[in-house]
Amino acid sequence: xxxxxxxxxxxxxxxxxxxxxxxxxxxxxxxxxxxxxxxxxxxxxxxxxxxxxxxxxxxxxxxxxxxxxxxxxxxxxxxxxxxxxxxxxxxxxxxxxxxxxxxxxxxxxxxxxxxxxxxxxxxxxxxxxxxxxxxxxxxxxxxxxxxxxxxxxxxxxxxxxxxxxxxxxxxxxxxxxxxxxxxxxxxxxxxxxxxxxxxxxxxxxxxxxxxxxxxxxxxxxxxxxxxxxxxxxxxxxxxxxxxxxxxxxxxxxxxxxxxxxxxxxxxxxxxxxxxxxxxxxxxxxxxxxxx
Length: 291
Hints:
There is one protein chain. The chain has helices at residues 8-19, 29-43, 67-82, 106-112, 122-136, 144-158, 162-187, 191-201, 206-217, 221-228, 233-252, 261-287; strands at residues 51-53, 56-57, 86-88, 102-104. By secondary structure, it is mostly helical.
């Protein structure tokens, strides 16, 4: 069997899946984690398990794991250590007080059950966001400017710089709203209405842009919601956008207000839903001009 390339995002997913199960205390957790990831790689057809006999896979051993996969697992684990999801050691004495023994923190447990988007893993987060956008339309892609700011936010979050992370999430959210603005302008039926809308939004504060967008969408809001499978597009987009915008404004001005980790984390968990809804609206407007 030819070994298939295993993308880093897939290794991150397998590590997360393994960490959601209890890890035994009598064996080094890194060893247990590695063998579980190896099993997942075999089950997914990326590796061929060592066999005891016909149809009988041998018990997984660290010695069976290719060096490349072992390195990728250690890279994920070290990233989790840096982000406080796990801490080295399972006690204060002896060999088990350092790696390869480790413990999932209370914060880490919260991260692991928060859903598909994990802000402490930038690669996996962006990979999943790309997947959501391409699922709307295979020819669509996450806007390059949005990607720049989301990446900055994720890297800031991973470095513990939560104020910067909140600001960058807010900037990414504003860029997404500008993309909606462009789609609304394109969907307006006459050149005069397009020009009037462009003049009302060009260079204006983002709150004004948001208001102008919804003046044009209000009459079609219910049809738009049904078309993209949402209950209320305006409430969904405005609620999330207002939260991100307010936090961005607080963080981006010299108010002295600190942004705690939980708040920066919450913004990054909200952003994909906001982004996906906006992209669905953009795609809908392409084939459904405004009245």
